[in-house]
Specification:
- The protein has 452 residues and is of the alpha/beta class.
- Helices cover 43% and strands 12% of the residues.
- α1 runs parallel beside α18, α2 packs across α14 (355-368) and α17 packs antiparallel against α18 (434-451).
- The chain is globular.
Length: 452
Amino acid sequence: MKKVIALIVTSCLFLITASCSYDPNTYDDTLPEGYEASAEGYEYTILSDLSSMISLCDISGDSLLSEKLRTHYAQIEEELGCVINLEITADAIESNVFRSASGASETADLIESNASTIYNLMNGGYLTALEDMPGISADDEKFGLASQRNFLSLDGKTYGIFPLYLGVSAPTCSYMLYYNDSIISQYSSLSPEILLENGEWNRENFLEIARDVTIKDSSPTYAFITPNVEFPDFIDAALFSEGLTPAVKNEDGSYSYGYEKNKTLSVISWLTQMVSTYRLTLDVSGTDADIYSFANGDTAFLVSSARTGFSLADSFPQESLAEDLRWISFPSNEEGSVSSFGKNDTFYGISTQSATARADSAPILDRIFSLMEGDSETTWKDRLLETYFFNEFDFSNYISSLENAGNDNLLEMSSLIDGVHEAWYLVIKGQKSAAQAHEEIESVVEGLLGAS
């Protein structure tokens, strides 16, 4: 395993070096003396790779949201005398940004892409912080919840924007735990909801429920699917719920190895007990096989991102389970984080601009992320509750998870994490000792962090 992970590390060293060796922020950071900023005549460009199902740039449809966005843009253009251009690219966003930075193409003012892309551009120096936009209040909730802004922050500044008020993409976080209420209420005397309310939603009680619901008869059910490299969410959620991540960020901005040994081995032992000792899990493979197994009632629990609960597809849990689909946070024995933002969530970043461009475009940015006509500050919550939730307790739990979500730092480990998951999978399947896997992972992660 160490060799496998080492190969991954070697392949990503060039990318790390490249991202750290070039600083495109060479624009003049100060306004000319006496400069009067104005959005009048400014052509504001939003660039998207359509990584989100619903995009700020995709407004050609006849949906209510598309109509509201068209009206929103038209009102901004009339009010400020500017022009808003929407561009969709088939190329990687990074390629467009690099061409712009070299002067080979026009610079976009706002970039719409997944969190991983925004994260890479932030660390490469290609984005402007909200705090550096004149007249912008970076802590305004219209730019996202505090947890979302912290997820994409660097050196105390905010680089990731999430448009809560525009209805573009439902706020999502990773490590939500779904459960089939029909199966659990039929086979177990314990209730996840009551346990959570009583402060007893921990690993011990989860294990008891998992054993109760695993019925191996003519129509077998299992607690959850076997976590592996293809479906690693249960591994990551278990570790993260105890405050454990592959890397932790230090006060000086550097990173250190984060899987504290005793806590980590305790979590992995819990997983091994369920998978190898009691055989409470179902082996599956294939695209969304974990979701389909849960939707079909083959498993009682599913760890996934909130996107799974937001899908209205016929084959997904909302349609097949209806009111039996329940949401809850992951069980924890510690006061650790229980959810995180994932690399596939859609965020927005401000492209690096000159001081004059930042001053002129700031009012446009501020208005774009403001409330649309007819909406209030709670419209996004009302829409989510009405559309996706059968139970208000679950909705409150989801909002709490969203507001308190942390950073699992997997974006720091994106080139390495498959190897980490493979090591833990071999442990929980009884093919490697936990201490050996921990030592191997620690050695390679520290090597990667030292190289960066």
